[in-house]
Amino acid sequence: MRRFFSLILSTAIAFNIAGCTVQNADPQDKDLYVIGFSQVGSESDWRIANSQSMIETFTEDKGYELRMVNARQNQDNQLAAVRTFILEGVDFIVIAPVVEEGWDSVLAEVRASGIPVIIMDRSVSVSDNSLYLSNIGSDFLNQGTMAVEWLEEQTETGDPGQGEIGLTEGETPTEEVIEDEGSDETDTLRILHLQGTYGATAQLLRTQALEDAVEAHDNWEFAAQICGDYTEAKAYEVVSEYLSGDTDIDVLYSENDNMTFGAMRAMDDAGITYGEGGQVTIITFDATREALQYCLDGDIALCVECNPILGPAVEELISDYRNGNSISRQVYVPETTYTASDLTQEFIDSRIY
Ligand code: GYE
Q1: Which homologous superfamily is 140-305 in?
Q2: 202 C-beta closer than 6 A to ligand 1
Q3: What is the atom index within ligand 1 of the atom nearest the CA of 43?
Q4: How far is C-alpha 52 from the chain's CA centre?
Q5: Which of 82, 107, 163, 204 is the most buried (most CB within 10 A)?
Q6: Is 261 exposed, middle or buried (0-12, 13-18, 19+ CB in 10 A)?
Q7: Given this model, what pLDDT does residue 207 score?
Q8: pLDDT recorded at residue 13
Q9: Which pLDDT belongs to residue 27?
Q10: Listing from the earlier edge strand, what are the strands of the sheet with 16-18?
């Protein structure tokens, strides 16, 4: 109890929120800091690498005890885990939120307990950003923008890259396209948009970039927008179902690698070709080792990187907090894109995720 009050006191003194930085003081110097970590789930290779990064960073020999709780992609499980961390009196709480909404009350409870909170990977949408110390993760809108800019370049230059993008020769246009008055059906780009968990920052912003681009291009259209919940199994199921009714797609824009793998299996089953010289151009997010291999082998056209190795950045933030250094409210990790010409086998083999 004494510790509880000293935490409240020290945090009240420590939080000096000005603009987008937070100044802090070390609550107390301890031999072991307990980190309560509410993880989204284990839905993807990205997520496994992210959990691994936290486990490898917060080790006992460095003075940490990591309590990681898997929410199985369910926000209610996260709320319960965070409340348990409060009761346990952990030193820091790290949350990788499943979805953005619904965090105000529980974060207010954490603030009342005096435990500092770090949001990792996806974001929370709360009325008061000072409810958390910092949000460390990806610039998901930039990821989406890099993807659509690449697609624009391909369609503008007509650079085959992965085979002609658009309706390929000999392909039968759908009735819908033929009826589309005044449009040249050979120029219409039909995009199958495979979305991640609805309401997750990674979904919202990767989707926003594509929706804006479709809006801006008269000849880009959605074949469909379907949710694969970031898993290979769900993506296989929904893409198989979709392809049983319509196979006229030119581009697959898939909001993570594992859904891409499920969609590739569904396209294989449906006899739809993709990659170099194939019907469908694939854009995928994460750039995990397996996806990069498909890219080098010519099956995937573009991998947009999303870096899961966030443990060291979270640790740095915690030590900044303990040392009273200023902390940025938002920290983005640097990321890039890959096409086959950017890749070598050595690079892929040495990639840690
Ligand atoms: O792209 C996906 C994971 O939020 C960045 O979640 C993360 C996303 C990532 O399941 O593979």
Answers
A1: Response regulator (3.40.50.2300)
A2: yes
A3: 10
A4: 16
A5: 82
A6: buried
A7: 98
A8: 34
A9: 54
A10: 16-18, 21-23, 326-328
Whether the Cβ atoms of residue 234 and residue 260 lie closer than 8 Å to each other: no
Q: How far is the CA of 202 from the centre of ligand 1 (A)?
A: 7
Q: Which residues of the chain have pLDDT under 50?
A: 1-19, 159-163, 167-185
- On whether the CB atoms of residues 121 and 146 are closer than 8 A, the answer is no
Question: From start to end of the chain, where are the E strands?
Answer: 16-18, 21-23, 33-39, 64-70, 92-95, 117-120, 134-137, 189-195, 220-227, 251-254, 281-286, 302-305, 326-328, 330-332, 337-338
For ligand 1, the distance from its centroid to the CA atom of residue 321, given in whole angstroms, is 27
Q: Is the pTM of this model over 0.70?
A: yes
What residues are paired with 280 via a beta bridge? Answer: 274
Residue 151 CA to ligand 1 centre (angstroms): 21
Domain 2-137+308-322 falls in which CATH fold?
Rossmann fold (3.40.50)
DSSP string, 246-300: ----SEEEESSHHHHHHHHHHHHHHT--BSTTSSBEEEEEE--HHHHHHHHTTS-
| Residue 353 Cβ < 6 Å to ligand 1 | no
Cα–ligand 1 centroid distance for 185 (angstroms):
35
Question: Which amino acid type is present at position 311?
Answer: G
CATH 3.40.50.2300 in the chain, residue ranges: 2-137+308-322, 140-305
